[in-house]
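Researcher: I'm preparing a figure for a lab meeting and need a structural model of a single chain. I don't have an experimental structure, so a prediction will have to do for now. The sequence is pasted below. Please return the structure as tokens so I can convert it later.
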Amino acid sequence: MAACGSNMILWALRMGERSSEMGAAENCDVSVVILTKNSARTINKCLKSVISEKPGEILVVDGLSTDGTLRILKQYGVTVLFDHTNSLGYSRQMGVQAAKGVYVMFVDSDVTLASGCISMLRRDLREHGWTGIQARNLSAENLSYWQRAQAEVSREHDRAGPANRIGTGATLFRREILLACPFDRDAEEAAEDGDLCRRLVEGNHRLGVSTAVAYHYHRRQLRAFVTQQFRYGLGRARLGVKYGIRVGTAIDPLLEAFYQMVRDVVTGRVWLLPYQAVAGLIPFLGTAVGISRLRRAQPLRTHNKNH
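Model: Understood. Here is the structure written out token by token.
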């Protein structure tokens, strides 16, 4: 019996080693790209979750952080690239160009991956024949009103299935597609993901949301949430000017917020009204300011040209 027990232990250890090796081999064709800028509060948890998924490589594109971000990155020994442009589109494409994997996965520095996330994304991508696939973003913490409200609203949008637009918080793409249809390097503020998705869908590529899960640290304080929403507005402005979208582009956030507020009152979720008000007013202001800035600046290249 002792010998039998010993053999069983050895067998279990060998199976564990094989399982570990299979896990490492399974995601070795994935290059994870993480964008950072003063991300010291969350990058440690982010990196731990990514490393546990055993991707082929981890590339960090840093936008000249001044907090402890670089010190933390050094502890993990990941490859760090530096972007001096302060452009999200440029940073993302820099990561794509440097990547060696068949797939490129973007993971935001304030996101952690659930166990098995990358493997599930790869499986769903192949099964559905999609070009890009996003994990469902659940809330990593609900310490403030703004985090709880963002979690409630995000839960409604991140439903598994086909989608015309996906984010880049925890998203897998085929690298060859991002080389042929790159991010707009001029997309500084935000909406670089929306711009990419628009061009991919126009090119008959299919996108979707997976059943895989990632956890996002939503903005905890009102000030941080307002800053984020204003940047979203600036990104909307760039899309509006670039694609010649109708003048009402700036008003759309207000109309959407009004619709959501009426809906929340009818469904008894009046606690979301302050969130909806900010999520409508601030992007409206950001869009108006952005359109004004861009029209005074050098005309943008049209989307028919290569970037």
